[in-house]
Amino acid sequence: MSTADATPTVDVTEPAAEQALDLLEGEGMDTDVAGLRLFVQQGGCAGLSYGMRFDGAPEDDDDVVEAHGLRVFVDPASEQYVEGSVLTYETGLENAGFDVENPNVSRECGCGESFRT
């Protein structure tokens, strides 16, 4: 688990945290325990893709990052791929939603939905 002394696995912008917290509360989840799970899975034309979902609590071996009141859970297998990333939230008519700015990506597919490190 992350500690205050360690560099967090991921950083979260304030707008991303606010949006996720609003969604968590809208689902009736306790934001003191529940959080946003960020994970990497096989898929997409570049080989890997991001996944996000709300979880009621972290798993025992998760890295738990707390930023702007939001808890983000990252499993050990995904941690190596997302370390140093920033979770953002974009608004607008096109491409509104969460985005992961990942410094470890060496190649992305044309649509930006998958990546390779």
TrEMBL record:
Entries under PANTHER family matching the protein: IRON-SULFUR CLUSTER ASSEMBLY 2 HOMOLOG, MITOCHONDRIAL (PTHR43011)
Swiss-Prot/TrEMBL GO biological process terms: iron-sulfur cluster assembly
GO molecular-function terms, A-Z: 2 iron, 2 sulfur cluster binding; 4 iron, 4 sulfur cluster binding; iron ion binding
NCBIfam families in the record: iron-sulfur cluster assembly accessory protein
InterPro entries per UniProt: ATAP (IPR016092), ATAP_core_dom (IPR000361), FeS_cluster_insertion_CS (IPR017870), HesB-like_dom_sf (IPR035903)
Protein name: Core domain-containing protein
Record-linked SUPFAM superfamilies: HesB-like domain
Residue span(s) of domain Core: 11-113
